[in-house]
């Protein structure tokens, strides 16, 4: 894996936005996998600024979703589809036709999961997938002990995850109990994986992902299997890395401040 330590979240956002801009320059219709939550917001803000203030053309870019709540009605403001439309698609000036995601309101959820995996493959595969990481090392909603070969499927949210997400709803009772998530195997199909982690609370998970053994207990450690995985962390999230100085020196030796 390529490990990049940046001063803060804003610097990480700028760095990853630059990598996405380079990809879109090479491949204007690239399929970008996006994640929700607060961590990737600096990426989306920096990319929107580039689209607005530079010659970067994003009009042919395609966006796909990492996960989705099950059971929320179409258009619910806290569905992940709505969040991605607000935070990524609309700021980039794209239309909803550029966006694809799993159908969390389908009557047959298992069929919807299979359909989404098939749709990603038929679209040519994900060119760059953005990821966050949980404090327990989960990626997407692949909780500890998820199969490293898993495909898009339905998962039951833990009570703690529902409590954590209750701030986005009127009360805990409104938080869905299930989600559709890309499986670890589905995630690993993407050509480039880029994980952003910030804050000291993520330090142990980052260290286990990067320097620990490959383990289903730390789903993000599956990135060790990928031929093109980049982990971008701020100083706080890097605080548990034994090889932090090595990673800093390796990246500083590169000719340009950019991702591979």
From TrEMBL:
Annotated positions for site Part of the allosteric site: 146, 153, 155-156
**Which residue positions are annotated as catalytic?**
67, 136, 138, 143
Major enzyme class: hydrolase
Report which superkingdom the organism of origin falls in. Bacteria
Q: Which Pfam families match?
A: Glucosamine_iso (PF01182)
Q: Identify the residues that the record assigns to the Glucosamine/galactosamine-6-phosphate isomerase domain, covering every copy.
A: 10-225
**Physiological role:** Catalyzes the reversible isomerization-deamination of glucosamine 6-phosphate (GlcN6P) to form fructose 6-phosphate (Fru6P) and ammonium ion.
- The protein's name in its UniProt record: Glucosamine-6-phosphate deaminase
